[in-house]
Amino acid sequence: MLTINLAVNGQPVSGEVEARTLLVDFLREQLRLTGTHVGCDTSQCGACVVMIDGKSVKACTMLAAMADGAEVTTIEGLANGAELHPMQQAFMDHHGLQCGFCTPGMVMSGLDMVNRHGNDLDDATVRRELNGNICRCTGYQNIVKAIRTGAKAMEE
Amino acid sequence: MYEFSYHRPASVAEAAALITRAVDGKFVAGGQTLLPTMKHRLASPSDMIDLGGIAELEGIVVNGNIVTIGAMTAHADVAASTEVREAIPALAALAGNIGDPAVRNRGTLGGSIANNDPAADYPAAVIALGATVRTNQREIAGEDFFTGMFETALEEDELIVAVDFPRPEAAAYMKFENPASRYAIVGVFVARTAPGPRVAVTGATACAHRAHRLEEALQGACNAAALDDFRAPVERMNADIHASAEYRAHLVKVMAQRAVAACV
Amino acid sequence: MQDTGIGARVRRKEDQRFLLGKGRYTDDINVAGQTWACFVRSPHAHAVIEGIDTAAAAAAPGVVAVFPGDDLAADGIGPLICGVTGPSDHGEPHRAPAHPALAQGKVNYVGDHVAVVIAETLAQARDAAELVEVDYRPLAAVTSTAAAASEGQPQIHDVAPGNVCFNWPFGDKAAVDEAFAGAHKVSSIELTNNRMVTNPMEPRAALGEYNAGTEEITLHMTTQNPHVHRLVLAAFNQLAPEHKLRVVGPDVGGGFGAKIFVYAEELVVGWACRKVNRPVKWTADRTEAFLADAHGRDHVTKAEMALDEHGKFLALRVHTTANLGAYLSTFATMVPSYLYAFLLAGQYSTPLIHSEVKAVFTNTAPVDASRGAGRPEATYLLERLVDICAADMGLDPTEIRRRNFIPQDAFPYQTPVVQCYDSGDYETALDQAIELADYPGFASRAAAAKERGKLRGIGFSSYVEACGIAPSAAVGQLGGGVGLWESAQVRFNPTGNVQVFTGTHSHGQGHETTFAQLVCDQLGVPFENIEVIHGDTAKTQFGMGTYGSRSLAVGGVAIAKACDKLIAKGKKIAAHAMEAAEGDIEFADGNYTVAGTDKAMSIAEVAFNAYVPHNYPEGVEPGFDENAFFDPMNFSFPAGTHVCEVEVDPDTGEVEIVAYTAVDDFGKLVNPMIVEGQVHGGIVHGIGQALLEGCQYGEDGQLLTASFMDYAMPRADNAPDFKIGYAPTDPPDNPLGVKGCGEAGAIGAPPAVINAIANAIGVRHLEMPATPETVWRACQAAR
């Protein structure tokens, strides 16, 4: 077993993991942060996207051991109590989610887009940048709208 | 995934020592291919030697006409690098189109070329740009590095340190994506260099290769029309449920023409 | 009335928890003492099991138990059933082979369940599963739909000679033959409807807990219909008596049909938790979902239309072979029969229709309902054939549709294929679609595209579907094993807030919001004071669940009826309290008033009186809590016209959908925001089928598309923004005036897309999925 120390949603955390423990399993099973989901086993669907040191990462394709010393932000770490982060709020306002399963990864990918492309995102950029996130419910149109609106709202 | 021993060395020397000691050790860079493979229990190394803690493997340096990219530099960092975008914009664009954003934040140049997936993008750039792969033991010409499907010139205990990319006069990469995986069904990288055009093709055959016949066709006039009569050899092409050999051969020509046209 | 009532774009109640990461899906639940299950699956498509040695696995670290099929059989558990006895085969019952939950001596598809390993951790269960030694004697396999019933093919089940489940002719063959003999023209098409993997983003999962003190099993699972799961598991699989089995579907991450069925894994988990007297959890990984979720569609069809000299349809003849996979899944036989052949009239007044459906077994995963179920198959076939007819007659695709539409004044319209459409206005939808899509401007857009080296095409699809399933009597006549009514309970708490219990379940449709809007509208209770409860057999009354776009059209009506009962009862209580005659009491906007006076009391006050009946009418029961059941009189018939515009790159075969318009008739909309979301999602599902998704097995029966690396799911860059319009009619057979909307997009889109591509490149037909290579080859052929 390995001991890892990291910060998750601003809180210091330590844990004992097998070398093969994936970061997503550490978050879900040990920390009980079940907002991060697992939708595939080939790094395609993006339901598991979290932020590591400010960058989006697929938590199913990273060992927990690799996150030793890192700062991890999950969907649980965005809101201020019940007050949603502007990106979360935009998803609610624009019906950017249905079953909610892909949603945490979508929100995280939206934040990563803002980090890299700024607050003024066009449709084509958002659609292209979502190629690592699969949603079966929404047909994406409202997700695209939500991310664009959320990005704008983050400027204010 | 099978259990293994995990190591996170802080230096290249330490990493090399660890792999020598391991029964069946494996370097892991970003892990974006290796980890899914291990999850499906298709690989079972005894030791995983994580290169993520080795600072000397990361970074981008431009020295004259050479762009040096550390093996552990993430695709996203190459894509965003002002130096690379200025010196070899086609390389930055290629890096910015590998996988998806989250994969680009973890996946690395070294990991990509060491894995040598037949549909990977970077090998085409390494070959076409005439890059040099620097390891902890030697320098390998990009063209000689990729030896077969998932096979490279690397020895078991050899570790890529960086890749030196000479700046071309112009370059362009065009890929036709697999609708499912978004890997290249066919990708063609064209570079205009002083001695003449250099072309590499990925996705089409067992592994990325230098396309001498395309280069010859472009010797006279380096434009798309010069390839009008070009026919890629169908018998050498990969065939799978996504694309037949015949279609791939056709795409080689189309992507090559588009890359040449964009290579200005 | 209120801005949270019917017709309002209310933000969804469920979103807050999902956005905070506080959703609670089955795999999110962990309990003390929990163990993990891993299934040993067949690597062969068809093989005899000569022996199973579990010793090494049982001795592996952390292993609690290893169970092969014999252990399950010894406890009398299973087999899995098909809940539909129809259709018959020329009067004989269709062939229904035994379907053991864990194999008994033979496996019939790759992924078939052979044994289960229970261990302390998931990793240990997986490690040990590899140690179960199964001695297989491989047999030749058959996977091809078209060839399965041919002579010389491997036989899968002794009870099904020639691998045929049923051969089901339907309609007046002699009259159809006669119409063809006298036709001006006959147009025909041969096509396949590609096999789909449903792929909700949340994989299936189950957590079984056994309480030895109460002898009760609690099964948390990914279900669209918890009571149906409980009923089948109890009555047919002998898991536990119904009252000792609790099935809970917590938040469900998409279903689209895949979570309707009773599968081996959930049953085995429920059984194993009692066997080992520990909680047992199983969560599919995506590979397992590809291998062992029920798949959808997979038809091969030849169809012909007889036309008169004006392009009027005289008769339709359809021959279809449908692949049911290796075993009959829960509702398998209903899909290529009643949900398919009864829709073959489409929007048209074709007077004569004859169909023959041959359903076959193959060494592939079972095939069952998937978003649309039968109706996409019927619509694709029909709308492709109609375009062929238009070409053969030299008519514009919109003109041939217009000439054959059931006229607006003909409703209710009895089709020749059982269904009686209650309402529709197909021409209005078409007109609106033509305008929204700017069909008149298409020619100039196509010319501009040509300048850019692109082939631009436009395709129409005018669909009708039958959903809101269904009248129980009709279902019973067709051999369905259950009634398809829906239930509701609407309960006021003494403090005036309301809990709504529904027998439907939500897996993304936003029922907590839509149903609250209904109740808000009807009872005048503030939206935020209404809570919808579903998905737990211990909390809600028996209900039939969510599929076939039925929740609002059937379940919503049950809720409305329960509200009616509350309002009526409240009148008595209000009359007594306000010392007026019951006949003088009026109810509106949440208040009871005495006609002609200013006396009033709110429904919340009435509720309080009902629970604190100190001053209360004689003969009226205390309490303010009513239930209702609703059995619909008819199906619901959403319809519409979809228009797809594509640009094809002839050099690569790449297709870009550049515009997409949908004009639908969903009757009255309760929450237009949610309806739009359903339409968007359905269309992209249909685009997925048309362009990307094709499940493929190799000849040896190996699944070639077993991950998202090889099975192309639609992504955000595969579609544009949609233009959405509505052409509603008022369905007389639905008391709320609503129709289902969840499947329409998946039904309407595939033919619209393929018609557009065929139009762009000038070919009669090309198969789905229209991958770049398929399209490129079609372009080559068209040159």
What does this structure look like?
- The complex is a heterotrimer of chains A (156), B (264) and C (783).
- Chain A is built from five helices and five strands.
- Chain A has helices spanning 23-30, 86-93, 103-117, 123-129, 141-155, and strands at 2-8, 11-17, 49-52, 55-58, 71-73.
- Chain A has a five-stranded mixed β-sheet with strand order 2-1-5-3-4, sandwiched between helices.
- In chain A, α3 (103-117) packs across α5 (141-155).
- The longest helix of chain A has 15 residues, at 103-117.
- Chain B has three domains: 5-53, Uridine Diphospho-n-acetylenolpyruvylglucosamine Reductase, domain 2 (2-Layer Sandwich), CATH 3.30.43; 55-166, Uridine Diphospho-n-acetylenolpyruvylglucosamine Reductase, domain 3; 170-262, 2-Layer Sandwich (Enolase-like, domain 1).
- Chain B has helices spanning 12-21, 34-39, 75-80, 82-87, 89-95, 101-106, 109-115, 122-128, 142-145, 212-218, 245-262, and strands spanning 5-7, 25-28, 47-50, 60-63, 66-70, 132-135, 139-141, 146-148, 151-152, 160-166, 170-177, 184-193, 196-202, 209-210.
- Chain B has a five-stranded antiparallel β-sheet. Chain B has a four-stranded antiparallel β-sheet with strand order 11-12-13-14, sandwiched between helices.
- In chain B, β8 (146-148) and β9 (151-152) form a beta hairpin.
- Chain B is globular.
- Chain C has three domains: 31-139 and 202-253 and 259-292, Aldehyde Oxidoreductase, domain 3 (Alpha-Beta Complex), CATH 3.90.1170.50; 373-467 and 638-782, Aldehyde oxidase/xanthine dehydrogenase, molybdopterin binding domain (Aldehyde Oxidoreductase, domain 4); 485-630, Aldehyde Oxidoreductase, domain 4 (2-Layer Sandwich), CATH 3.30.365.
- Chain C is α+β, with helices and mostly antiparallel strands and 783 residues long.
- In chain C, β9 (205-211) and β10 form a beta hairpin.
- In chain C, the strands form seven sheets. In chain C, strands 3-5-1-12-9-10-11 form a seven-stranded mixed β-sheet, sandwiched between helices. Chain C has a five-stranded mixed β-sheet with strand order 7-15-14-13-8.
- Chains in contact: A-B, A-C, B-C.
- At the B-C interface, α11 of B face α4 and α20 of C.
